[in-house]
Every structure is written in structure tokens, then in C-alpha cells.
Amino acid sequence: MATIPLTKRGAESLKQELHRLKTVERPWVINAIAEARAQGDLSENAEYEAAKDKQGFIEGRILEVESKLAMAQIIDPSTLDAGGRVVFGSTVDLEEEETGEAVTYQIVGEDEADLKVLRISIGSPIARALIGKEAGDVAEVRAPGGIKRYEIINVRYI
User: Minimal CA–CA distance to 90: which of 100, 98, 80?
Assistant: First the structure.
């Protein structure tokens, strides 16, 4: 069974989602099904069909989250000692060579990735180009607009 890397924050987020699904969403949809069933003929009851569809989605997501948590390898970036190398969980300060634009990314698991908060998936092209490198190295990333080169300014484990 393959493990799924997750940061400590990502694992907590999945646990919170699972708790919400089990304690809020599941009881709500069970109640909605009961109310729709009480309205009589189920063959033409749109509320009943919608509630059953929602129940299927919720139960599927519960199974998916439970499975991910069971296979998770939880990594706390603050306890890493990778000798300055870019690894899963590290926060990397970069400078795009052509434009001089500075950007900071944290390399996280697929479920945690969110570009709006500068968290990139371990499987993304930029993360794959950065893994194993250290401050001062240059990473080449194949982007839709061509190859971009980023100089690694700093690697932190926070």
C-alpha cells in the first residue's frame, strides 16, 4: 500500500473535513431524505432524488478522506533536517531569472495544494524541478510559455 505524503497542517485539515462530514453533513442529508420521504410518492419527488444524490456524494467523500488518512505519511516540516535541500514540506524562496520576480512556495501533498496561498503539489512541474536542489542552484521548469529558470534563494523548514 503506497503512502500519501501530507504535512501536519494538511492532515489536520482532512481530519476537520471528516469530522464535519460525519457530524454535520451526514445527519443533515439523512434528515432531508426523511422529510422528502414523508411527502409521499418517491418516484416523482425531486427533493428525495437530490438528497439521495447528496448522500452518495457525502458517503463517497467520507470513504475517500478516511482512506487518505489511513495511508498518510504525516510530515512536520519544522522537524525536517534535509541539510538545506528542497524536500517535501520545505518552503522555498525563488527568483525568476528573466524577470527578477521573487516568489515563495511551500511543497505540499496533492490535497493541500493551493496556489492562492502559495502551496504547490509535490507532483507539479516546478516542485519536481526543485526537489533535491539547495540555495544557489537554478531549477529549470517547463511551462506552457517555454522554459523558466528559477534561482533558489533560500530553503526553510517551517
Answer: 80
